[in-house]
Write a structure and sequence with these properties.
- This is Polysaccharide deacetylase family protein.
- The structure is a single chain.
- Helices cover about 35% and strands about 10% of the residues.
- By secondary structure, it is α/β, with parallel strands linked by helices.
- The protein has a single domain, classed as Glycoside hydrolase/deacetylase (TIM Barrel, Alpha-Beta Barrel), CATH 3.20.20.
- Helix 5 links the parallel strand 4 and strand 5.
- The mean pLDDT is about 85.
- Bound molecules: zinc ion.
- Zinc ion binds next to loops.
């Protein structure tokens, strides 16, 4: 049985990344071109994906978001201003979430049911976020990075989709919660290499990414991987970025289209919502 994996794109400005947001001045957005590159690639492969969109982008580019949804892709929330949950109180997060939900509803005429936290900032420190998401009517979250990295992550968190218990959100209890968690892929069950996407996917060779997805799929588990549309647009490299941030920010951009092309050839991918629905129905995705 072929496992359906989750393909997701976090749609924010390229200069919203933690490493860049304080150092880039007068940036060019490149956002429409970047999205077009990705939409073309997905159309070529007949694949649908989930775009987690920042509310301020949905307000500024409603036609773009509507075009993505019109091509059959799912639109989820990526917060309103791309501030990580670490920097917000529960009340501030509720406001952020509400504003982003509204911005997406205004753009596409339907509310999002899925959420991804900027910087994967759902961790033991911000576990209050789960109740805020439940109260706001969200059905799933895809923010748990089940390995500790310098900036984020929860070591020991489950690596399969599971129901979030607000009292023990990083344990696979399938307790009282109403929210499903789709953790980001770690490509080796024991080593837990954090190679779900972004910088890691740009850094690592295609054969290793493939092996990681295959390993999860062999255990019947979907791999949830993520990219940013700007990572497929070499034009962002010409933007003014301080030298020491250039390397990590733009490494591997020229080769990422070819890499994703190879992954789309080799594996089945669909939207997060589809995988959540089929995994909670008890059926195979
Ligand atoms: Zn982001």
């Amino acid at each position: 049985m072929r496992v359906s994996n989750v393909l997701s794109f976090d749609l924010e400005h390229w200069y919203s990344a933690t490493l860049l947001r304080d150092s880039v001045t007068g940036p060019v957005a490149h956002i429409e071109k970047s999205v077009d590159i990705v939409l073309d690639l997905l159309a070529e492969h007949g694949v649908t994906a989930t775009f987690f969109v920042v509310g301020e982008v949905a307000r500024r580019y409603p036609e773009l978001i509507d075009r993505i949804a019109g091509a059959g892709h799912e639109i989820g929330s990526h917060g309103d201003t791309h501030r990580p949950l670490f920097d917000l109180s529960p009340k501030q997060f509720a406001v952020e979430l509400d504003r982003s939900t509204q911005a997406i509803r205004d753009a596409i005429g339907a509310r999002p049911v899925g959420f991804r936290a900027p910087n994967f900032s759902v961790t033991p420190k911000t576990r209050w976020a789960i109740e805020v998401l439940e109260d706001a009517g969200y059905r799933y979250d895809s923010s748990v990075f089940p390995v500790r990295t310098p900036m984020y992550g929860v070591s020991g968190a489950p690596i399969r989709p599971y129901t979030l218990d607000p009292n023990a959100p990083f344990e696979e209890r399938n307790g009282n919660g109403t929210l499903t968690e789709l953790p980001l892929a770690v490509f080796h069950p024991r080593l837990k290499l954090p190679v779900a996407g972004g910088f890691y996917a740009r850094l690592l060779p295609t054969w290793l990414l493939k092996r990681g997805i295959r390993t999860l799929n062999a255990r019947g588990l979907p791999a949830t991987i993520y990219f940013h549309p700007w990572e497929f647009n070499p034009a962002v490299k010409t933007s003014t970025v301080p030298a020491h941030e250039r390397c990590i920010s733009f490494y591997g951009i020229d080769r990422l289209q070819t890499k994703l092309d190879a992954l789309l050839d080799a594996f089945a991918f669909t939207t997060a919502e589809t995988v959540v629905r089929t995994s909670t129905d008890g059926g195979e995705p």
